[in-house]
Specification:
Blueprint: H1 7-13, E1 50-52, E2 58-60, H2 64-78, H3 81-91, H4 119-135, H5 138-159, E3 166-168, E4 173-177, E5 183-186, E6 198-206, E7 214-219, E8 225-229, E9 238-242, E10 250-253, E11 264-271, E12 274-279, E13 282-287, H6 294-297, E14 302-305, E15 318-326, H7 332-337, E16 354-356, E17 365-366, E18 376-380, H8 397-402, H9 416-434, H10 437-454, H11 459-466, H12 477-488, H13 491-498, H14 503-510, H15 521-538, H16 541-554, H17 588-604, H18 608-624, H19 659-667, E19 676-679, E20 684-687, E21 693-697, E22 702-707, E23 715-722, E24 725-733, E25 742-745, E26 748-749, E27 758-766, E28 771-775, E29 780-785, E30 788-796, E31 799-804, E32 812-813, E33 830-831, E34 839-841, E35 844-848, E36 857-858, E37 861-863, E38 867-870, E39 873-878, H20 888-893, H21 901-917, H22 923-935
């Protein structure tokens, strides 16, 4: 077994893939503790037959993983976390401290108006937590503390009525409305007083150039109103009044935009049928056809500063100072006087209908100095959270609207529970890494809010919600809620997890009915990791069965060679691979989530296929999705990995801060999480991956140091340290491994016959200094697409080799020409001196997919073996093919490995005889083929 783990340590060690069921000890407080500091050693779930090690128990050694991680750790150290917190602080009406939102998906100007904002902060917290656990560097704990502290302040602010954000103004103090706060100032209904004449005067400092954001809007609805907009569709100020909607507006239009982040004075006067618009003391528009006045409008219900009566219009972002409403039209001279002094100090005096200085520094009330007692109130457009646990970077409105949606529309509602999942997981990981009880309190409160919101909905409503594409996506929230339940033990949390059951999907997969065609891949993969966790917490077998069957529907039937899945984010029909290849294949999040699911399933059933897949996806897509250069501002991770010929990877996708960049940050800080597992009873150690690393197995009192340059090195050396310990060392034999897999202990061969796609056990009482050498020869092989066998991808051991070539058509390669007796196709390639795993074929460079470059690549090529060639000797005979595309050479080499040349020639002779008998090859050509095979010279 692994060293004693606290509940926090255990869940983190499982990368929140699975956890235990016992309660943790109380959190120790806010101070960051040493990574993995723990108080108790709870049992793992009874269903687990293996358990993981914590990230701090496995140290990465030098190699490709350490190099990629170093780049991401630099990003984790260098990025300003206040930028991530900006959208949360803005939503709560707090100062954003001058920070600029990250942009892309994590800002109001990104895709779908930033409806997914907040998700990236959760990913970043997880990255920091993993970085801290892996390295112990205090900088990561400090950054976690900053973010958790800020989110605690955000939730507290959301629990209260909004409070003024006081800033420096034109004359004194001013009230700022942060963009994204959805706050406005509500004036009493009597503010206009039915006056036959009017002057509206305000100092404003706009912070954003959104069209139709209101400075004033007095009205009942979209029919009767009077407004002053900072910008119309042309970007200039506009005043309008109407009693019959937009078509009946009487208006005044400015001539130039108001400058951003600068104070401007605006005034509108109405009297005797004449209206005038002033900007900074200058009359910029006048109309003598302004017959409507406040008297014509009557008493209006909505009298707002910063909010429009048209719901789709944005809330004003910026600052207010010196807002005055007069019951007469000020003269031009009086307007000019207001440019240099407060109304109270000018000849006009304060507005007699209303006067707000906005010099308050606390609270939500703005005093009216007109003498009428019309104090104004700061409000949110959406009211207040329905529960004190609510925490988000946007209002609760997306969650509310989802409950009545019948069709997806991510421009209105974009996966709010998906975003909640990322925040929840980030908080849990922060707690597990640092024992910060504030993070646990935030996470628990968030789930309490969700339970309060969802538990009152009819089951049919929930089923409809979760079945909606994108809008109803909830990511891995079930997994995270189960992890929280493992900490708190609260029944409400387990009940909440079950509220996300999507019955039609679970039932179909439990019955092994493939319903994936047409589904959004990444919306559904994490559902099944959550189901595994629900099985752990409830014991319900259908959850685990559904997850196991689902995995088999993806691997290999919807899997590309690199381990990725999805085309344009969706799944297509089973076993259609070639037919789905495009520029938007293999969304990176899908590989991340398939790894989590594979790992979770392995905890229950040690099917080597799970770890074969894990190696494939980790060593190819996951590594290759991270660009090999530093950048403090961007994680440099792909969204899609196009598999079309000549595709160039995009490491800064979709304006940034996407889901895949978020999971990419996580992947690059937990590469070591599945290298080793321990059998639950401590009787065995699984070595799942060959990777330079050092395991500290404290419970056994031993260390295992793996020294290797794998996959550049075809093998690994494991050195035992510490005291004596009896256990079985289970070494994974990859499914692609040939007969050359060998194991020695202290230089002596271990008896037995390792089988490809299994684990090879070495049982003994281990002593300090024992050395295990694993030899793992690589062979070059191809994998064919099931729907077009001639379209193939190339592997050397675990490494997917891609051609670097700018051509946009599929390259044609032949590989049998120099194939060895073992069936290895590698002799057909020419090694590039000084560059391990780099080769050339027909003058084209082949390189590992894992290298994060911007070279145009070909992951698939078209197999072209026009003539029968053996050992470099060309028979001159055309290579015939059967109706299914299988060629004569395919059938010959399917018999590899061959014990010697005679065995190969015998295979050629029997194959030729069958093809001649079937009328696919002439007898004369058959004789030529056999003769060529007999005369050729072969590599081993």
């Amino acid at each position: 077994m692994a060293r004693p783990l606290s509940r926090r340590t255990l869940i983190q060690a499982a990368a929140v893939t699975a956890t235990t069921t016992a309660m943790s000890s109380a959190a120790t407080g806010r101070a960051a503790t040493a990574p993995g500091a723990s108080a108790a050693a709870p049992d793992v779930p009874a269903a687990w037959t293996v358990r993981p090690f914590a990230l701090e128990d496995v140290t990465l050694g030098p190699g490709v993983f350490a190099g990629k991680r170093r780049l991401m750790l630099d990003h984790a150290r260098g990025y300003d976390v206040n930028r991530l917190l900006q959208v949360f602080r803005a939503n709560a009406g707090l100062s954003t401290r001058g920070a600029v939102a990250p942009g892309g998906w994590e800002g109001l100007d990104g895709e779908a108006g930033g409806n997914l904002r907040g998700h990236y902060t959760g990913h970043f917290l997880t990255m920091l937590a993993q970085a801290y656990r892996s390295t112990g560097e205090q900088v990561f704990a400090d950054r976690i503390g900053t973010m958790v502290g800020a989110l605690t302040e955000v939730r507290e602010a959301l629990r209260r009525d909004p409070a003024v954000l006081s800033v420096g103004g034109r004359f004194g103090r001013a009230a700022e409305q942060v963009r994204g706060s959805h706050q406005y100032v509500d004036l009493p209904a009597a503010v206009l007083g039915g006056a036959p004449a009017l002057t509206l005067s305000a100092w404003v400092r706009p912070a954003h150039d959104a069209a139709w954001a209101r400075i004033f809007d007095f009205g009942d609805d979209t029919t009767r109103y009077l407004y002053l907009a900072a910008r119309n569709a042309d970007g200039v100020p506009r005043f309008a009044v109407t009693t019959s909607g937009p078509g009946g507006e009487q208006g005044l239009v400015g001539t130039a935009p108001l400058p951003l982040d600068e104070w401007s004075h605006l005034a509108v006067t109405l009297a005797g049928g004449t209206g005038t618009l002033y900007v900074n003391g200058t009359a910029v528009a006048r109309s003598t056809a302004m017959t409507l006045t406040p008297a014509a409008l009557g008493t209006l219900g909505n009298n707002w500063l910063g909010r429009s009566n048209f719901p789709a219009d944005p809330v004003f972002a910026g600052a207010f100072e010196e807002v005055n409403v007069f019951s007469r039209a000020l003269t031009a001279a009086e307007i000019t006087e207001l440019q240099s002094r407060r109304a109270a100090d000018a000849s006009t005096g304060r507005g007699d209908l209303a006067s707000y200085a906005f010099d308050e520094t606390a609270g939500a009330t703005f005093a009216d100095a007109s003498g009428r007692g019309l104090d104004a109130t700061l409000r949110r457009t959406w009211g207040a959270p329905s529960h004190p646990g609510f925490l988000a970077a946007y209002p609760e409105t997306q969650f509310i609207e989802l409950e009545s949606m019948t069709a997806s529309d991510y421009t209105r509602v974009w996966a709010p529970y998906y975003t909640a999942h990322k925040i929840l997981t980030g908080l849990l990981d922060a707690y597990l890494a640092t024992d910060d009880d504030r993070a646990l309190d935030l996470a628990s409160g968030l789930c309490d809010w969700m339970h309060a919101r969802l538990s009152v909905l009819p089951k049919a409503t929930l089923q409809r919600m979760w079945g909606l594409f994108s809008s109803g996506e909830f990511g891995g929230i079930v997994e995270a809620i189960c992890d929280l339940h493992a900490i708190t033990g609260r029944a409400e949390h387990l009940a909440l997890a079950r509220l996300f059951d999507l019955d039609r999907l679970i039932d179909a997969c439990a019955a092994n009915t493939d319903v994936l065609d047409g589904l959004h891949a990444n919306q559904h993969i994490p559902i099944f990791t959550g189901l595994v966790r629900l099985h752990d917490e409830t014991g319900e077998e259908r959850y685990l069965t559904a997850a196991r069957n689902f995995w088999g529907m993806v691997v290999p039937h919807r899997m590309y060679g690199i381990g990725g899945t999805s085309s344009g984010e969706f799944w297509k029909a089973r076993d259609v691979i070639a037919g789905t290849i495009g520029t938007t294949t293999a969304e990176s999040c899908c590989a991340y989530n398939m790894l989590k699911l594979s790992r979770a399933l392995f905890f229950h059933e040690q099917d080597p296929a799970y770890m074969d897949y894990y190696e494939r996806a980790l060593y190819n897509q996951v590594l290759g999705s991270k660009q090999d250069r530093p950048d403090a501002e961007k994680p440099l991770v792909t969204y899609f990995i196009g598999l079309t010929p000549g595709h160039v990877r995009d490491y800064t996708p979709k304006q940034g801060t996407t889901c895949c960049e978020g999971t990419g940050m996580e992947s690059a800080t937990k590469y070591q999480d599945s290298v080793y597992f321990a059998k639950s009873d401590g009787s065995a150690l699984y070595v799942n991956l060959y990777s330079a690393s050092r395991l500290t197995w404290a419970e056994k009192g031993v260390t295992v140091t793996q020294t290797t340059d794998y996959p550049q090195e075809q093998g690994s050396t494991l050195t035992l340290g510490g005291g004596r310990a009896a256990f079985t060392l289970l070494l994974r034999v990859p499914s692609w491994a040939g007969t050359g897999f060998r194991v020695t202990v202290n230089g002596r061969a271990v008896p037995g016959t390792p089988a490809a796609g299994s684990y090879f056990g070495v049982s003994r009482t281990w002593r300090d200094g024992d050395t295990v050498r694993v030899s793992l020869p690589f062979r070059l092989r191809v994998e064919k697409t099931p729907d077009d066998p001639a379209l193939q991808t190339l592997f050397l051991g675990p490494v997917n080799l891609v051609a670097r070539e700018s051509a946009t058509h599929h390259l044609r390669f032949g590989l049998y020409r120099d194939a060895g007796l073992s069936g290895d196709l590698l002799p057909s390639l020419t090694p590039v001196a000084g560059r391990p795993l780099h080769y050339t074929l027909d003058g084209v460079e082949l390189a590992p997919f894992s290298e994060g470059t911007e070279d145009p690549t070909h992951a698939y090529f078209r197999r072209w073996e026009p003539r029968v060639v053996f050992g470099g000797s060309d028979s001159g005979v055309a290579n015939p093919a059967r109706g299914d595309g299988t060629t004569l050479l395919d059938e010959v080499w399917a018999g590899a490995p061959f014990a010697g040349k005679d065995a190969l020639v015998a295979r050629v002779r029997s194959t030729v005889r069958a093809w001649v008998s079937d009328g696919l090859l002439s007898a004369a050509d058959g004789d030529t083929v056999v003769r060529t095979a007999r005369q050729a010279t072969y590599a081993p």
